Amino acid sequence: MSTTAVPWSAVRGDARLRRRHIVNVTMVGLIALAAVVATLPLIFIFIHLVDRGGSAVRWHFFTHMPAPVGETGGGMANAIVGTLILMALASTFGLPIGIGAGLYLAERRGERFATLVRFLSDVLNGLPSIVMGIFAWQFLVRPVGHFSALAGGIALGAMMIPMVARTTEEIVRTVPVSLREAALALGYARWRTSLTIVLRTASAGIVTGALVAIARIAGETAPLLFTAFGNQFWSTSLAQPIAALPLQIFTYAVSPYDDWHAQAWAGSLVLIALVLVISLIARIAVRRRFSAAGD
Amino acid sequence: MSTLTPTAVRARHTAIRISGSAIGDRLYDWAITFFALCVPLLLGLIAIEISVAGWPAFHRFGLSFLTSSAWDPVHGQFGAAPAIYGTLVSSAIALCIATPLAIGVALFLSEFAPPWLRQPVAFLVDLLAAIPSVVYGLWGICVLIPILRVVVMPFLRDTLHLGVTPFFSGPAYGTSMLAAGLILAVMVLPYISSVSREVLMAVPRSQREATLALGATKWESIWGAVLPFAKSGIIGGVILGLGRALGETMAVTMLIGNRPEISASLFAPGYTMASLIANEFSEASGDLHLSALMAVGFTLFVITLVVNAVARWLVMRVSRIGGQT
Amino acid sequence: MTAPPTVPMRPIPANAPRPIPAGRAEPLPETPGIAAPAALAADHFSFWYGSNKALTDITFDMPIRSITALIGPSGCGKSTFLRAINRMHDTLPGARHEGEIRLDGVNVYDPSIDPTALRRWVGMVFQRWNPFPKSIYDNVAYGPRINSSPPRHELDRIVETSLRRAALWDEVKDRLRESALGLSGGQQQRLCIARTLANEPEVLLLDEPASALDPISTQKIEELLYELKRELTIVIVTHNLHQAARASDYTAFFYLGRLVEVGPTDRMFTAPREERTNSYITGRFG
């Protein structure tokens, strides 16, 4: 065994190496600090949400109508139902178009028109929600002459289209070509391969994508300001203005009354819980379907 | 029929199936093409409807609609400069604060966090990206504004003597450009960090090992291999954040103070294009006011369109260069 | 393994030294003429991933200016051992070791040893070629840049020398500024070797460097290693027994985290002393 001076271990005391280590430790420390600083406001929001919202959520919050100014208590029954109706409307309108467009993007990958549609759908995705709001007002409310739940639902659905299209495309792209080829080789027509084999394989991802889109539009306020408009009374008519949780939260939040602030926190908590519950249910459903397919 | 050989039967069935599948294929192609057409149609419709509605204001004020800072509904004067300025400044504040923090979080999660910490933190960040704008606004009104008014603003202005600069001078109302920028930073941070995290996670382990095996420190590995590999994706995430910040409406409307003035001070109230529309649209004082708001909406539409286009071009270019050099 | 090695089995000669117990170092030099000082030596080295013991009491020498092949079935610990030499496991939580691995007589796990510095002297090439998405030049220059930041002309010289040593210079000298990802798989793997050589290491560790390559690229890599061993100590993990038989001077057979047998390659393939070695190299398991 060699006992002569070894070059490799002679670098132990190298000043350059020590400097590199100092830089390393500093940067790693900064990264950890960034992680702490970044999560702090998020944790604060969550604590406030649970604390203030939790203390204001009572059973009658779900069953009662908003109380008039000056009266304490009251609930957001109409807004909760309104939000559910708007979400259903938006999904009815947005999901089929979004999924169909996503299929197109995935199947016509290289074509010029597909590239254009992909680009435009990114543009549409980046469109500010308030712009969607004034467009829906101009297109659906102004000609009719009054606000309506339908206009709000369509505005939200339009916002879902690019989100759903892009996630659908990404997921369908991950379906192995071999699977598609196997189906085609068995004599499946192209359309049947796409609609059964490909879509089914991609279904979990598409459902997740759709849910993310629904979760995002559930809390959207700006597109509803001039379409669904909000309603202090009970209404489930699609042709009439309808209450929605985000709108109600906004109205209460900018008010000067402490009691209304409490109601706004409660509404926020319910809204976020609603979103969570929906995505949780769907996630479980997807998992069950997956495991069933696995058996 | 009885004269047909089995081969002939099979051939005939095949022929039937082919023609059937051809019709199905054509229908399927038409259907997905129609759905795909909806995207450009919708976008075109939005552009046309809003530009037509905003045309009277553009026509009346010309280019000065974008450069004039006089927004006076009472006297029928409309210049969108304060709103454009406020939009750009609040978004710039947000990105300056959020980008380093978001990349830090993403790096922490992808490079350092032990597995038991990674999942919950990532879930929390994703969860918080789902918090509606209006809830951020509520939190801003009830928590952020009082802290700014009582603690942060006096500290910056008086204790740090930053009040001598124009940027941190003036009375501390709380509702301000600073408040809007801060809440935007909080709002876009999860966006940037979750995109960055995904991109960083996708960096092959072999890239990290290659640098470490060449004698790199952890940071050198991140700086030399991980970040360059993930660069285009991270830029994409930042641009996504910018797009969201530019068009963000509710939280900003609730915090920025809604005053159509250009002030160098971040303590002063301001307006963004989105908050201007949200605040005045339902109470527009006449057709010209309404048209001016539509014109503001169209301007916002064009700005976000340009940002998105530039971003995509940038990402494409960056990844192309990344692939070459 | 598909086929036994082409070398016919021979009985152990009568004058052969007595068999040594598994996991013990064969006393080197065993045969006069191939004697060489050990550049690397494992001394009762054991290794754990968490509670899972991956290596047990490994002791053997890897002589200088020679190629030592580590063979054994999947999961036998040969890659784990290779990565332990330049402490690539340090980043894994729960990784733990006992015993020593010595480079030129110095324990690489000595607290005074900085793994960052160690890895500059103990280069490693991975199974799947992993060039950076940068130019060919920048790939090779990466190591020198972080370790010593030499001046430009010096860096140019290092890049050229390294590419020449990796037998890649003639193929890429006109396209140094082009992306490394434009090269073929075999070229990329040789680029990774060049990148490692640019650090002027003493030891070169290769983890199945040719397992994903075509036969011609594999042959090029083997020829390259044959050239490189004049200046370097090379340790190579391989699944391919033919490769071990062709390219290495010494062979160590790992099984279930233990070193079963080690010795000169021709002796290992002709007269294995352990029944398990014999079974493995004749293709009866693995």
Structural summary, described in words:
The complex is a heterotrimer of chains A (295), B (325) and C (286). Chain A is 73% helix and 0% strand. Chain A is built from ten helices and no strands. In chain A, helix 1 crosses helix 10, helix 3 runs antiparallel to helix 8 and helix 9 packs antiparallel against helix 10. Chain B has one domain: MetI-like fold, CATH 1.10.3720. Chain B has a two-stranded antiparallel ribbon. The C terminus of chain B is likely disordered. In chain C, the strands form two sheets. Chain C has a six-stranded mixed sheet with strand order 6-7-8-3-9-10, with helices on both faces. The longest helix of chain C is centred in the middle third of the chain and has 14 residues. The N and C termini of chain C lie close together (6 Å). Chains in contact: A-B, A-C, B-C. Chains A and B meet through helix 1, helix 3, helix 4, helix 5 and helix 6 of A and helix 1, helix 3, helix 4, helix 5 and helix 6 of B.
Percentage of residues assigned to helices of chain A: over 70%
Strand sequence of the main sheet of chain B, in spatial order?
1-2
CATH topology of chain B: MetI-like fold
- Count of DSSP strands of chain B: 2
CATH top level of chain A is Mainly Alpha
Cα-based radius of gyration of chain B, to the nearest Å: 27 Å
Strands of chain A, count? 0
Individual helix count of chain B: 11
What percent of residues of chain B adopt helix (DSSP H or I)? over 70%
